[in-house]
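Hi all, posting the design record for the shared folder.

TITLE: backbone redesign
STEP: 1 of 1
STRUCTURE INPUT:
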């Protein structure tokens, strides 16, 4: 019969070695400071368009990206001309004056400056309709067809010294919404004030679209803005391009 004594001695030796381990006490040390610098961005105004999708498409942007919708969901948008333009209603050449209108959505401003709160103001100027072919432009403030008075039904027409001049009318949308961050989107906005309907015969006229006082920095938006141009009788049959220029200021 084999002796098991060597194996027993080997186990005892291991136990003895384990039993000789000592516990070392570790004292708490100071932590290292972690410093962060957050660099502020810019206050940016984005072009309005016909599509209510809250896009942030810059003039040269052609990428496809996702944007937050009014209900908090996201949608995929391909940036391009349709996200920066609207089409005025089509008209025909007539012997009387007529109107052309459109609806502008996504009048959107975003403050990435890192400010705590600001007074915000969004304004617009309306440009002439430039003839893209042969013929005359449709210019605000002129009277190419010799009209002396507008019809009584045209309540937007200027009066007194400006009576008879071609004009444009802008009606700001009444609902201004916070799009981002989520905490701002889910709370009803009570600090935004929409501008008033304005008739202008001057491309330099600044029209107030909406404003807010002492409001936290965020992304905000106005939809269902209405633009109308008064068109003279006997206009040239052509394509015309105009423009509405928006500015956003913070103080």
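Okay, here is what came back for every position:
SEQUENCE:
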């Amino acid at each position: 019969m084999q002796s098991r004594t060597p194996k027993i001695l080997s186990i005892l030796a291991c136990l003895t070695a384990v039993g000789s381990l000592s516990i070392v006490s570790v004292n708490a040390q100071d932590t290292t400071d972690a410093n962060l610098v957050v660099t502020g961005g810019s206050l940016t105004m984005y072009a309005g368009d016909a599509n209510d999708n809250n896009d942030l498409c810059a003039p040269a942007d052609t990428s496809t990206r996702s944007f937050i919708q009014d209900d908090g969901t996201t949608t995929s948008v391909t940036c391009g001309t349709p996200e920066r333009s609207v089409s005025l209603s089509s008209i025909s050449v007539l012997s009387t004056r007529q109107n052309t209108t459109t609806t502008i959505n996504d009048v959107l401003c975003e403050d990435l400056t890192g400010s705590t709160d600001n007074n915000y103001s969004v304004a617009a100027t309306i440009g002439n309709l430039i003839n893209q072919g042969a013929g005359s432009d449709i210019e605000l403030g002129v009277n190419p067809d010799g009209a002396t008075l507008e019809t009584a039904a045209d309540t937007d027409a200027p009066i007194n010294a400006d009576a008879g001049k071609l004009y444009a009318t802008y009606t700001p949308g009444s609902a201004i919404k916070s799009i981002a961050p989520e905490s701002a989107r889910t709370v009803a906005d009570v600090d935004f004030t929409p501008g008033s309907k304005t008739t202008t015969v001057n491309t330099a006229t600044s029209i107030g679209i909406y404003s807010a006082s002492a409001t936290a920095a965020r992304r905000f938006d106005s939809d269902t803005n209405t633009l109308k141009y008064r068109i003279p009788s006997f206009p040239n049959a052509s394509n015309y391009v105009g423009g509405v220029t928006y500015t956003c200021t913070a103080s």
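COMMENT: The first strand starts at residue 43 and ends at 46.
Let me know if anyone wants the other runs.
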